[in-house]
Amino acid sequence: MSVVVVGLSHRTVPLDLLERMAIPRHRLPKALGDLAARPFVSEVALLSTCHRIEAYVVAERFHGAVQDVRHFLSELAFVPPEEFSDHLYTYYDEAVANGGDFAYIGGDGIAIGVVDLHDPHNPVIVKVIPVAVRQAFINGNRLVVRSDDGLNVYDITNPLDPIATAFVSIAAPGVSGPIGSGALVWNGDTLMRTGLGFGDLEPSGLRVLAPMQIDSAGLKTVVADRYALRVFGPNTAPPPPPPAAPPPRRHAARP
Predict the structure, then answer these.
(1) Buried-most residue among 40, 86, 155, 239 (CB within 10 A)?
(2) Are 6 and 54 in contact, with CB atoms under 8 Å apart?
(3) What is the pLDDT of residue 37?
(4) Please, which pLDDT band fits residue 167 given cuts at 50, 70 and 90?
(5) Whole-prediction pTM value?
(6) pLDDT band at residue 11, thresholds of 50, 70 and 90?
(7) Mean pLDDT, residues 40-54 taken together
């Protein structure tokens, strides 16, 4: 079994059609029961706002579950599935952070789904957090979600009920990762460091070039950049500096 996200948004279908698929609060229990009773769906969470509708389902079979959601939406809005099928977006098994008995899954900038994995044969979606997702990682008892405009920080003392605690505003943040009790984030051409509090952002002093992945192990921080795997921390030799940029080419002037 796996987790599948199927949905429609105001970016993919006309608003009048999306409004017909909105689920009022009083209809939600029936809608959940209807979708959960489909042949290839075992667990269900629904997200319905004025901008999108999404079904987060534990699928027995991927294609069967997508078809189940497709028919569910068709019956919900009394619209033939052919009118919106080409506009459905689907995300499959995008695990962005794994904590052992729990996981946080997301789909290309839409939301984080909290999944209870205590029974690995029967994963259960227990919460959906609407937040733009570009990357996520766990650092101690905090979940950090990188969005287009900064880092969203959640307390996961109770891992199945993340609570928003801080937001670090960063214009167009790049790849991020844990360091100590805080985080590193690539911004422009500088690796910045934050303690994951409001506004505490400063240059880290670590020299890298276009990092692709950042992680930590004990007191050491590992950065994979375009040219090398760089390790920072106690009892480590200073990593080699990034290579100098090649000199500009000179072209001989034509006579």
Answers:
(1) 40
(2) yes
(3) 92
(4) very high
(5) 0.60
(6) confident
(7) 86
CATH topology of domain 132-243: Lipocalin (2.40.128)
The three-state (H, E, C) secondary structure of the chain, written as one string: CEEEEEEEECCCCCHHHHHHCCCCHHHHHHHHHHHHCCCCEEEEEEEECCCEEEEEEEECCHHHHHHHHHHHHHHHHCCCHHHCHHHCEEEECCEEEECCCEEEEECCCCEEEEEECCCCCCCEEEEEEECCCCEEEEECCEEEEEECCEEEEEECCCCCCCEEEEEEECCCCCCEEEECCEEEEEECCEEEEECCCCCCEEECCCCCCCCCEEEEECCEEEEECCCCEEEECCCCCCCCCCCCCCCCCCCCCCC
The Cα–Cα gap between 186 and 177 comes to 9
Q: 204: buried, middle or exposed (CB in 10 Å: 19+, 13-18, 0-12)?
A: buried
CATH number of 1-93: 3.30.460.30
Of the two residues 189 and 142, the one the predictor is more confident about is 142
Domain boundaries of the chain, sorted by first residue: 1-93, 132-243
Q: Say yes or no to pLDDT of 44 above 70.
A: yes
